[in-house]
Amino acid sequence: MPMPKELEDGSDTDDPLILELYRLAIQIYLDRACKTNFSSRAKTQKYVQRAFEVIPKLQACDRQFPIFIIGCEARDDEQRAMILDLIARTKNGVSSRAFIHTPMLIQAMWAQEDLAGGDRVGYGERLASVISCCRIMPTFM
After folding, report:
1. Which of 44, 62, 83, 132 stands the most exposed, by the fewest C-beta atoms within 10 Å?
2. Number of domains in the chain
3. What span, in angstroms and rounded, lies between the C-alpha atoms of 60 and 33?
4. Taking the model in full, what pTM does it have?
């Protein structure tokens, strides 16, 4: 029996992982943005850690929202390289959407994080500052 067309390029094989990445990104965003006791910092870090375990397993991810949110959580060179590698793999895909704003916004968030040092500017303020630099609001779709 021939392989279905959707599976020939490997795109559907990543669907469960992309779904998990979305779930993790939403949980991370809500925990960071709401500043409530939805979960502890340790639980949020657990989500971040799991996301960075999923990313190397993906062939590509043409969904920009999870890449942006999880990319903003990258704290060291290894994690940042994983994000940039995933973006590069996605850009090389035939059906990838244009990743125009996402890499630039992620790198701007990294610069904000690096420059902030010990002074933590609020998560929402950093996101607003970086996104407001765009003339057109990114859709992250």
Report:
1. 132
2. 1
3. 27
4. 0.79
